């Protein structure tokens, strides 16, 4: 992409945002709701460790809600979710996750019930993702996950990190997430997306 096109796109996006103001209050409300839940998110996240190629995400709408539910993803693909109940952690899936996991990875947790994170079934499920399991997701999600993994490396490990002095922003400092924007570019040109719901 040439520099002129990049600058033109930036100007178009800025002009769209300047035309509208509702997004400012909307994003302020996002921040206020999220700040109320920082401590419970951090507390529940401390109850379990990340495993192999699996990464912890939290959709913004979940982070602003009353219940902590973490999304467990492999190469950007949802494979399960994690919930803390008291001091115990449970692993569960939806029917869609269960079907995809069976089809692409040959592993499944019955979506009608949850399993304890530290149980044999929970451990066996996670072990599938320690190697180079297939990915059923789009290349864009796989690339995004790989980029975040690189950015998460500590600068102290100088030889291991390609992009220095950059760390990703995380919900409560512990969960990856995608930030919805007030713009859409599906037509190829930036356009304002009024009152879009919070996505994953």
Short description:
The chain is an alpha+beta fold.
Describe this structure in words.
Strand 6 (183-184) and strand 7 form a beta hairpin. This protein is of the alpha+beta class and 200 residues long. 38% of the residues lie in helices and 15% in strands. The longest helix has 17 residues, at 3-19. The protein has one domain. It has helices at 3-19, 22-35, 38-45, 60-63, 95-105, 120-127, 139-152, and strands spanning 54-57, 69-74, 77-85, 88-92, 115-116, 183-184, 191-192. The strands form two sheets. A five-stranded antiparallel beta sheet has the order 1-2-3-4-5. The chain contains seven helices and seven strands; from the N terminus they run αααβαβββαβααββ.
């Amino acid at each position: 992409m040439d520099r002129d096109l990049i600058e033109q796109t930036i100007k178009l996006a800025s002009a769209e945002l300047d035309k509208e103001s509702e997004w400012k209050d909307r994003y302020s409300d996002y921040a206020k709701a999220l700040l109320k839940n920082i401590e419970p998110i951090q507390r529940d996240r401390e109850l379990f460790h990340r495993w192999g190629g699996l990464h912890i995400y939290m959709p913004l709408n979940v982070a602003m809600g009353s219940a902590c539910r973490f999304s467990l993803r492999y190469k950007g693909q949802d494979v399960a979710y994690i919930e803390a109940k008291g001091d115990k952690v449970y692993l569960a899936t939806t029917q869609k996750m269960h079907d995809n996991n069976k089809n692409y990875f040959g592993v499944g947790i019955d979506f009608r019930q949850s399993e304890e994170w530290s149980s044999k079934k929970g451990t066996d499920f996670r072990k599938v993702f320690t190697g180079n399991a297939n990915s059923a997701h789009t290349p864009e999600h796989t690339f995004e996950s790989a980029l975040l993994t690189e950015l998460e490396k500590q600068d102290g490990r100088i030889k291991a990190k390609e992009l220095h002095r950059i760390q990703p922003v995380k919900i409560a400092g512990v969960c990856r997430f995608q930030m919805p924007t007030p713009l859409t570019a599906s037509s190829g040109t930036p356009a304002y997306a009024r009152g879009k719901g919070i996505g994953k």
